[in-house]
Structures
1.
Amino acid sequence: MASQVPRTEKPPWRWCRLLGSGMARANLKTLLEDAEMRVQRGQSRLNRQRVAVAALERADRDATLAKRALKILEKALAVHVADRDRLAKRLARPPR
């Protein structure tokens, strides 16, 4: 008789069953609030970086690195916005 090794990892689909429960909806709300905060912080950082790039350009300084950082922040913000929108869409669906 072959002995079975206890499985320590949980199946990846296990969380899907929880999405319809009230607890999961509360978790989704918390995740959505966190995502919204990340979007707001990202927008604030992006605005500060734009000001920094403009200041460097006005002073006739090299703004190459500042522009690279600006592009990185723009991409990060796009990811945060997409995440927030996905969570909001999921939360808007009726519970199962």
2.
Amino acid sequence: MKNIDVEIYLNQLISFFEKNPNDLTELIGTSMKETFFDKVREACTENVENGDEVTLTNQQLINIVLDIKGVKGTKEELEVINKIFVKNKFGTFCLN
């Protein structure tokens, strides 16, 4: 069963990346788009099931990107990546 909040969040994220395709390419590359959005949907659904906010945390987004790219980062590398993402009342976005 699809959660409406998850679908709304995912549609907003997809819309953002459709308007800013270079941002998505810089984030995950060119061939992992569907995998990225599938993993975002899974994480959002898990958040809702756990009673958390539907929006992903910086760390969750970082973990998805690292998982897609097959990167096992050090703590220092993860801290640098974490500073790239900013969360505000409109959602999470990437500063690059």
3.
Amino acid sequence: MAEPLQFDLDPAKIVALDALALHCGKRREDLAAQADEDMLAIEQQNLDAVREGLDDLAAGRVVPHEEITPLIRALRRLA
């Protein structure tokens, strides 16, 4: 079961949240809950990516800077 949580919002953010809720036909609380879920998912993805990078580093699965720099420059010229 969900546990209530209170926090303060800047008045401008409340106005924006209410406008978005009205536009979407949803309640302010539902949008805030969805934003919370989305933020937690994004933060978990970021943590997972950092852990993966650290695991790669520890296992030696890296490309030295002097090898990757010319590749990046070449890709920029193609863009």
4.
Amino acid sequence: MENKKTIETWQKSILKECESRLNRNVTNIEKQFITTRGGFLALEMIEDTVKALKGKELESYLNSESNEN
């Protein structure tokens, strides 16, 4: 159960960083991209990528698995 709390906290932190870098709220699709990952390695990779991108590049990354692309 401790891991679940850690993962949820980490996901929230990543979402907050995304919103800061995008200057807007994330969409449901963008949120789902992050919250469907529960592994530490996956979240670490997402966090590193989010911190390296801004604007349209970050938007493209967060929507990269969307069928709406």
